[in-house]
Design a protein that fits this description.
A four-stranded parallel beta sheet has the order 4-3-5-6, sandwiched between helices. A two-stranded antiparallel sheet has the order 1-2. The protein contains twelve helices and six strands. With about 280 residues, the chain is an alpha/beta fold. Strand 1 and strand 2 form a beta hairpin. It binds adenosine-3'-5'-diphosphate (A3P). Adenosine-3'-5'-diphosphate binds next to helix 2, helix 6 and helix 11. It is an enzyme of class 2 (transferase). Belongs to the sulfotransferase 1 family. InterPro entries: P-loop_NTPase (IPR027417), Sulfotransferase_dom (IPR000863). It is found in: Cytoplasm.
Length: about 280
């Protein structure tokens, strides 16, 4: 069931991590500054990967920062209490992360020149990643089966609501200069450097790639926040689970894939241009 959630403005939030008044405060009162950069994703789209890349770009490939400071201190979450207060007191330029849907994002952003990097991933892989995440943590409810999880996902009855709405609403920004759209399937470090106005030497870029690789990140435990929250239980293996595009094909049945495609086409009809990379394919 959905008992471990509260709903705010149509979006279900896991109650263990979030508070209604903080979501409201971050939307209405939090002041985003012109020099800020925000990493925005729908959960399980490669958030931690992008945080690692951006941090490594800032240190020109030197891994010391990412190996000694946890992700939530390098790039605090806008929508959680402790990190929001950390951000309010932080000197700029700040880096921060968020899973918030467009309509709940800090209003001040829309009057600022701050940058947003949005990562999009094949929603079928997002779904499978979220399914295994749910089964390996006490943060959200443990989905009974992939079949029921697919139904919930298609209705938006999962943490942070509908993938379709999250993606569609955020993509409305794609013509803006302060918005960079990336895809998990085609993560381009050079594009990120250009957007952030950083110029790295080829050997520095090699270091960025090296320390943000799946294997290197698996060895660096600075992304698993269960180390600070005693009540949170996350099997670290599931945060760095497989790290490949297309794993959904090993899990969906043909009927599930067809049903998914049907809903996808209905909901994403007007957004298709940029979703070409996320070609449906079929289960193996
Ligand atoms: P899988 O479960 O498909 O393996 P998020 O950080 O938004 O929660 O996303 C988690 C997903 O990103 C997981 O997907 C995880 O394995 C994948 N991931 C994390 N770091 C990665 C990396 N360096 N390269 C490729 N995939 C990565």
């Amino acid at each position: 069931g959905m008992s471990a959630y509260f709903w705010f403005e149509g979006i279900p939030f896991p109650a263990m991590l979030y508070k209604r008044e903080i979501i409201k405060e971050s939307r209405d009162k939090f002041v985003i500054r012109d020099e800020d950069t925000v990493i925005v994703t729908y959960p399980k789209s490669g958030t931690n990967w992008l945080i690692e890349i951006v941090c490594l770009i800032q240190t020109k490939g030197n891994p010391k920062w990412i190996q000694s400071v946890p992700t939530w201190e390098r790039s605090p979450w806008i929508e959680t209490k402790k990190e929001l207060s950390m951000l309010i007191n932080m000197e700029g330029p700040r880096l921060m992360s968020s899973h918030l849907p467009f309509h709940l994002f800090p209003k001040s952003f829309f009057r600022s020149k701050a940058k947003v990097i949005y990562v999009i991933r094949n929603p079928r892989d997002v779904l499978v990643s979220g399914y295994f995440f749910g089964r390996n943590t006490n943060l959200i409810d443990n989905p009974e089966s992939l079949g029921t999880y697919i139904e919930r996902f298609l209705k938006g009855n999962v943490p942070y609501g509908s993938w379709f709405e999250h993606t569609r609403d955020w993509l409305s920004m794609r013509k803006n200069d302060n918005f960079l759209l990336l895809s998990y399937e085609d993560m381009k470090e050079v594009t990120i450097c250009d957007f952030l106005g950083k110029k790295l030497e080829p050997d520095e870029l090699d270091l960025v790639l090296k320390y943000s690789s799946f294997q290197a990140m698996k060895e660096n435990k600075m992304y698993n926040f269960s180390i600070i929250r005693k009540d949170v239980n996350i099997n670290g293996l599931v945060l760095m689970r497989k790290g490949v595009p297309g794993d959904w094909k090993n899990h969906f049945t043909v009927a599930q894939a067809e049903n998914f495609d049907k809903v996808f086409q209905e909901k994403m009809a007007e957004t298709s241009v940029l979703l070409e990379d996320l070609s449906p394919g079929s289960p193996s």
